[in-house]
Amino acid sequence: MNHQNIILIGMAATGKSTLGRRLARRLDWAFVDTDLLMEAWWGAPLQQIRDHLGLEAFVQAEAQQIQRIHLRQCVIATGGSVVYSEEAMAHLQGQGHIVYVQTSFESISRRLTNPSSRGLAIGPGQTLKDLYDERAPLYARFAQLTVNTDGTTPDQTCSAITLGLSRTTQDEP
Known about the structure:
Blueprint: E1 5-9, H1 16-27, E2 30-33, H2 34-42, H3 46-53, H4 55-67, E3 74-77, H5 86-95, E4 97-102, H6 105-111, H7 128-142, E5 145-148, H8 154-171
Helix pairs in contact: 1-8, 2-4, 3-4, 4-5
């Protein structure tokens, strides 16, 4: 594969970081988690950043962090709220192929055992289901490839990503 980067988008607890690490090893590329970049930039855990900034400023700070990324041959796992910024998503589209790591709400709610400490960009009174329903169409809109992780192992999902992207690049002019 000769992609510049592979960018994973999707909700928290879909396995973006797990898949990203595994996929990067398979491709012999670097792995970058933008949540960890945020923590390094701000010098605090994601939840503290979210609490300190508030929802709107947190989403804006995440978008700014994304726009500072200029990488090659990396698998990049993004924070779930990146899709709220048109500018950040346009930047990512210029950085590589965007893969939506799609997982059912049931799986996410089962896996997300610590939602109050995950740094979720969730509004007052908004439930996890509200967030899922709001974001799913945004992820689908920006994705060049969608892989569903329900009932698959991380290795199977990585294979689906590499196969799907190899087909995508064959179709490009």
